[in-house]
Backbone:
């Protein structure tokens, strides 16, 4: 159920942002790391079984998946800020810098957001999209090539986190920085090569899934001040073991249909969360900028906006992506030697 899983993770991110509850902060952090691991797994699979390491088709498809809808949300957010600048600045302090033309350009370019230092961000968590686009390059260049390169990436990522922990660096360095993502992406790529071994151990996978959910829901109570170190790394480990079980449960035909629909909504939900939150903020006349009530008030708005984005994506972007997946690149096959690859299903 990859669609249901991605939708669940996206809603966790939205809840952690809009609820404003300090005890729920870790939920969003954990969900993003699970997203990164899942991305490492699924894109390594796609590189081997769909794209055969054809860079043009692979990266063009990923750009089409992420960038057009992101740019649309940037434009809409900019218009909204212009229409209600005072309320927008109160709701989201970063939006008060919307007159900075240099920062606007960096937002539209997206990749500069990976640095995490921009004052203006139309979409607060857009740094993770920039990290993803850079990590896609790493996956194609080497991380996803074989099991050894995946282990190498995982080792670099683990070493980075150990060094930062030993030096007492802030959690922000271990979460927002580009090198920190190597741990999750390396783990996801490695899982592709060991997938069958993990998938056969369904009891272990079920136990890991239950523990992952418990760590997710009760993390603050379980770990207290260690929720962003012990609980944070346990989240990655448990999700690594649980992923094959979570991705391939036995679903009825009805649930399989829901899985596809929710999977399509997951990225749009991620994109519209702050616009939906601002709508709720205006409805409440600025009385509540964050809160559980605000989250539930904005939930139907979030889903409606996400559905509209999904419709735009299906009409304008998906046909291009389907053609790219099925064609031969004008640049030929991969720019680097590839493995003997499995035939695409």
Residues:
């Amino acid at each position: 159920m990859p669609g249901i899983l991605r939708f669940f993770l996206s809603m966790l991110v939205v809840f952690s942002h809009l609820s404003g509850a300090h005890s729920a902060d870790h939920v969003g952090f954990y969900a993003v790391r699970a997203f990164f691991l899942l991305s490492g797994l699924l894109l390594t699979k796609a590189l081997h079984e769909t794209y055969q390491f054809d860079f043009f088709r692979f990266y063009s498809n990923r750009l089409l998946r992420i960038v057009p809808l992101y740019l649309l949300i940037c434009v809409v957010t900019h218009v909204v800020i212009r229409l209600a600048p005072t309320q927008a600045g109160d709701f989201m302090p970063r939006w008060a810098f919307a007159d900075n033309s240099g920062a606007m350009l960096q937002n539209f370019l997206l990749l500069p957001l990976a640095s995490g230092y921009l004052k203006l961000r139309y979409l607060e968590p857009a740094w993770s999209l920039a990290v993803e686009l850079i990590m896609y390059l790493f996956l194609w260049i080497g991380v996803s090539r074989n099991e050894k390169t995946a282990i190498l990436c995982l080792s670099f990522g683990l070493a980075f986190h150990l060094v930062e922990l030993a030096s007492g660096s802030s959690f922000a360095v271990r979460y927002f920085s580009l090198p920190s993502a190597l741990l999750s992406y390396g783990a996801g790529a490695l899982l592709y090569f060991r997938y069958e071994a993990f998938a056969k151990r369904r009891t272990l996978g079920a136990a890991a899934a239950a523990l992952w959910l418990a760590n997710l829901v009760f993390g603050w109570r379980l770990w207290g001040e260690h929720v962003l170190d012990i609980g944070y790394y346990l989240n990655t480990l448990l999700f690594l073991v649980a992923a094959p079980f979570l991705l391939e449960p036995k679903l009825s035909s009805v649930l399989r249909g829901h899985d596809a629909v929710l999977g399509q909504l997951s990225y749009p939900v991620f994109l519209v969360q702050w616009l939906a939150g601002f709508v709720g903020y205006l409805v409440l006349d600025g009385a509540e900028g964050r809160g559980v009530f605000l989250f539930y008030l904005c939930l139907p708005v979030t889903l409606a906006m996400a559905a509209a984005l999904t419709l735009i994506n299906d009409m304008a972007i998906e046909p291009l992506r389907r053609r790219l997946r099925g064609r031969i690149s004008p640049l030929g096959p991969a720019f680097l030697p590839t493995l003997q690859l499995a035939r695409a299903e």
